[in-house]
Amino acid sequence: MADLFCGTGSMGLEALSRGAEHVIFVDSDREAINLLYKNIFKLDFRDVCSVIPGNAFAGIPTVDSGGRELPPCNLVFVDPPYKLSLKTDEASPLGGLLKTLAAQTAHRARIIVRHETRAELLRQYATLHLADRREYGKMALSFLENFPEK
User: Fold this and answer.
1) How many distinct structural domains can be found in the chain?
2) pLDDT above 90: residue 71
3) In terms of Cα–Cα distance, which of 139, 80, 79, 76 is closest to 111?
4) Which residue, 13, 72, 102, 122, is the most exposed by fewest CB within 10 angstroms?
């Protein structure tokens, strides 16, 4: 699993507590990364996490900071800053990330994007297809699946 724009890691840490084998955390905010490390150590998840400080719009890193190859992801949680989730066309940063994730994830991988309700994701980004959308107040979750043959 990958948790992009992870902040303090709540989604990825929750996934680990529910049985995920490994989580790749990516965020560019140094303060959030420091808190993430504290959370990982407090929960004793050091051996099942890779923390990559950097630009999550670049997609899922393939190696960690020590040069070790990271496992492939079949589940990706994407929670960009809300301001950047408003533009969803293919040329936007979010649209570009979703096209990158289509190439980086396996057949049938699932990508969950958290965004403002007023933002509408396209029905398709490369091989990612919008499968569902759920709204919770001002926040929405869009669920995409990677189906290259559609």
Assistant:
1) 1
2) no
3) 76
4) 72
